[in-house]
Amino acid sequence: MAELASLVQRLEVAVGRLEAMSGPGDSAGGAVSVYVEAFDGIVSGPVAQYVSLSQKIGGDVQKHADMIKQAFSSQRQLLMTASSSQKPSDAVLTTLLQPVSKAIQQVQAFREQKRTSPHFNHLSAVSESVPALGWVAMAPKPCPYVKEMLDAAMFYTNRVLKEFKEKDKTHVDWVKAYVSIWTELQNYIKQHHTTGLTWSKSGPIASATAAPPCAPAGGCPPPPPPGPPPPPMDLSTSSSGGANSGDERNALFASINKGSDITKVLKHVSEDQKTHKNPALRGQSAPVRAGPKPFSSPTPRPAASPAPARTLPPVLELDGKKWKVENQEGAQNLVISDTELKQVVYAYKCNKSTLQVKGKINSITVDNCKKMGLVFDDVVGIVEIINCKDIKVQVIGKVPTISINKTDGCHVYLSEGSLSCEIVSAKSSEMNILVPKDGEFTELPVPEQFKTVWDGQKLVTTATEIAG
């Protein structure tokens, strides 16, 4: 028994050494590699929970979740290829990354098509962070890239939490499940792909059309043998010249074989036949062929007129609880007066227009507008300025929060009753807050440059004035 126990112990040690020697990207006999199994844990864990909660919410959120599920499936296919193949050339790698890239583009395009969706914040959170799946092309630091994409989604996940924290716990759980996907993915990358996607050290070099090899048991059929080589070219005949071309070729070779005797057939030119010694012959000489003309730029073609931009009809209507103000061009007297506390206003793609909102309303969103003015009485929720340029906002009554995101040029005129409101800004520039004082407005810029230092325990960030 002692000998048997010793033998078992020796076998366990040998197996442990073999497992240690095998790399994380190698898979033997078609078995799933260690890091593919770890990736499956993310899919069956946080991703499955996120999909389940999205199905409870339904609508656009569920459709978006199905796209995310497909994106993770495409990435798993790429990991299977990497686990059994060596790293290919950059051109082939680009082809292998296309399924993941197309899945990311599909997720982002869906969000752009659903800007009026009641769950637009959910769609935006997913759309802003899904590029994190591109970590497979990020070397040597893929993990920080995933974190950066997660940070981009936090703006919208916080809005979902703020909107549904007291209303529906399902949405709160949805945010936690979705954020955990990228958190777990960061941990996964740190463990298995620290400096980039890990490829197998053995096996064939990955090709653009190669799928991960099947296990021997089950039997993928072997590829068919290559076809026979083409017949040798027959040089004795030519497709166009026939026998005549063969005679001409033989005559050419015979002339070459003469060596120095080939010059004997040349005609001697006497002194009286040379034009440089007889000016009278110059006028009788054959015209000299002109050389190629100097390069000149071709006649410019008329530029093709660009296709006229598609103009959508202007919209100003109440759709359920939402006032929709869209595609307004040069409209200076837009007024929404018959308002209720439960209603919201959404202004989209308006240019050189002015909108006035009377009464008390829940919230106002100005999205993708240029040179627009907004005047409102009271808002109990939030006023959001997103993806805009040169916007002016005037508060007549009160508003608790004004959010400015991805906007260049925004002037906010506060009233006496709204001086306590919070201004939240991100990725914006040229922001100015005008505060009433003695009947006039005092203009104060919102900081755009910051200084961050480590105080020994935490990072401390303070606003700095731009030098220059």
Automatic annotation (TrEMBL):
A single Gene Ontology CC term: plasma membrane
Compartment(s) where it occurs, according to its Swiss-Prot or TrEMBL record: Cell membrane
Family annotation (SUPFAM superfamilies): C-terminal domain of adenylylcyclase associated protein (SSF69340), N-terminal domain of adenylylcyclase associated protein, CAP (SSF101278)
Keywords attached to this entry: Cell membrane, Membrane
Pro residues: bias regions: 213-233, 295-305
GO biological process terms, semicolon-separated: actin filament organization; cAMP-mediated signaling; cell morphogenesis; mesodermal cell migration; somitogenesis
SMART domains per record: CARP
Bilayer topology annotation: Peripheral membrane protein
Nuclease is among the record's keywords: no
C-CAP/cofactor C-like domain sequence ranges: 313-459
UniProt GO MF annotations: actin binding; adenylate cyclase binding
Broad class of where this protein is predominantly found: membrane
Extent of the signal sequence: none
Chain intervals for the UniProt region annotation (Disordered): 209-248, 271-313
Recorded family membership: Belongs to the CAP family.
Designated name of the protein: Adenylyl cyclase-associated protein
Organism from which the protein derives: Seriola lalandi dorsalis
